[in-house]
Design goal:
The chain has 276 residues and is an all-alpha fold. 76% of the residues lie in helices and 0% in strands.
Amino acid sequence: MKRQNRIGLSLCALIFLGGFLFKGHLSYYFNIASLMIVAGGCATSAILSFQLERLKIVVRVVRASYTHQLKSEAEIVDILIDLSIKSRMEGILSLQKDENETSILFLRRALGCLVDNYEPHQIRDILNTEMYFFKLRREDSERVLRTIADFCPAFGIVGSVAGLIPMLAGISDTNIILKTVPLALTSILYGLIFANFFFTPFAANLRERTNHELLLQKIIMEGIIAIESELNPTVLRTKLLSFLTPSARKADLVPLAKIQERFHIKEDDRPGPAAF
């Protein structure tokens, strides 16, 4: 997670907790019985719904999404341009050592296809298949997180009912009411917090990261196929920059003066506002 994200997360969490402390004490909102009902119920439902191996994968994916920073689109473009130049100067087989050094698994697989002399349509077919099943696996993990998020409010209601039953049974006893009302209310609170403060944001972050990785994979696929066809590095760079946002490639725009010179446009030839 980037430093700015950590600062923003800490600040927002403090504001969130400050809302609880503004008109009360933090201990008012802590109830171990409610926590056990909501957390235990959600965990049990998750284990009954999904295989344990699937849950382990989801935990690893979520942890990696917050601890491993992805390369930017511009960095991927620069890597591909360097590989293109190297392949033209030293030959396509010189990329073999880059296949073993790079930390980007998709790029390593693409380079493997390249150095094994696959045809362009074969490379595209293999990498498209890789992207398709990568997306399916990520969607499965996101589905698990959103399903668990749906469980949380339901078990908050279960905890609330568990508190209301003894309260109604001992309606004439003030002590029973004082003990059961916190259980009924904090259970709903915990269910909503677990769903909207943890699992739903985890799923949303995973979807955003997946979209980013798919974009990087698309850039890599187009770059590798262009390298295989020995496309000029300058042309390749222009092509790959199309994947970037306009602000990220603003410095690469051709100056208007150069365009004017190339097409022999004079200052007097440009149409004025009245022409529109």
